[in-house]
Structure formats: structure tokens, C-alpha cells
Amino acid sequence: MDAQFQRAGFHEERVEECHGSILHLQCLKGCDLPPWSAAQTAVSVDVETLRAAEPLPACPRCGGLARPNILMFGDLGWDSSRANEQRERLAEWLEELGQRRARVVVLCLGAGTAIPSVRFHAERTARRLGGALIRINPRDTWVPTGQICLESGALAGLSAIEAALAQG
Ligand SMILES: [Zn+2]
Questions:
Q1: Residue 37 Cα to ligand 1 middle (Å)
Q2: What's the rounded Cα separation, in Å, for the pair 126 and 166?
Q3: Tens digit of pLDDT for each residue in 113-137?
Q4: Long-range Cβ pairs for the range 65-68 (8 Å, 24+)
Q5: Is the pLDDT of residue 2 over 80?
Q6: Which of 17, 35, 112, 122 could form a disulfide linkage to 69, CB 3.0–4.6 angstroms apart?
Q7: 65 C-alpha to ligand 1 centroid (Å)
Q8: 74: CA distance to ligand 1 center in Å?
Q9: Distance, CA 2 to ligand 1 centroid (Å)?
Q10: Spacing, Cα 91 to ligand 1 middle (Å)
Q11: How far apart are the CA of 61 and the centre of ligand 1, in A?
């Protein structure tokens, strides 16, 4: 959602953002323009009111007001088309891994229990592919039987894995 994977160098087509992306906008009028990149859109904030200042972002097709392409709580207007395409690409890749009987490790970093959709997805994927789940989380440490949890922040956990791999 916050595009950290893309900023870290992951290719756009290798990421699933199940709750949308802060780097994309969608049309509030619903003119059917798919979500578009917000890279060229600057939104300034009025510091007195703490509200977005004019000009507000607009749909390039119909000129209607644009909004972030992010799923909010109780949000019935979120355009999930971009996320759906990402989900389909991921499903195809996971299917391919299953057909190849690839040895899979699912890393689950910092996904808490408050909104457990990412945790559940990681658990299901590891189970379905017969792979290992490594959860790295400083608080929500539960894992299914036989799986691994590193009780730490993501960077410390990943560094520990890297160090262990370097030792062979
Ligand atoms: Zn529009």
C-alpha cells in the first residue's frame, strides 16, 4: 500500500498490494478509467485547515475529483481492478511454483493480527505449496505447528537469516 517494495527495487509486476497503492489515484466519478500513477500529481495541504488545497487531483479522462487508490475501512468505492490484476499475477506464479514442486519459503514480515489478511495469506501459501513459513514479528509471534517465528523487527530478522545462510 505504501509502495515500500517498489522503492526497495522490486519490479512493479512482482508485488501484490491487496489494499491498493498510495502511488495511484482513481476517479471518484466512476468514469471507468483504471487507476493511474500519482507520480505527476502534487497535492498541497493548507496548514491552517489541514485540508488538501486547490487544485485538487483530477481524473485525466473526465476531470472529476480523484482519490487515492487505497482501500479504506468501510470503503465501497475502492477500484480494485489494479489489485485484482496483481493478485492474478501472483496466483499464476504460485500455481507455476506448485507445478514445478519448487521448494518455497514464505517470509511474513511485520504483519500483525489486527488485520490478519497478510498473515493468513502467508500461512495458506506455505501450507498449499508444502513450504516453510518464516514469520518475523516482534509481538504477534504465533505460527502454525512446524513453522518458524523470529521475534524481532524485520531488518534484524532478515539480517539474522542472511548471517545464518552465510555460515552455510
Ligand atoms: Zn474520471
A1: 14
A2: 24
A3: 988 989 999 999 999 999 999 999 9
A4: 65/27, 65/28, 65/29, 66/25, 66/26, 66/27, 66/28, 66/41, 67/25, 67/26, 67/28, 68/20, 68/22, 68/24, 68/25, 68/26, 68/38
A5: no
A6: 35
A7: 8
A8: 22
A9: 23
A10: 30
A11: 5
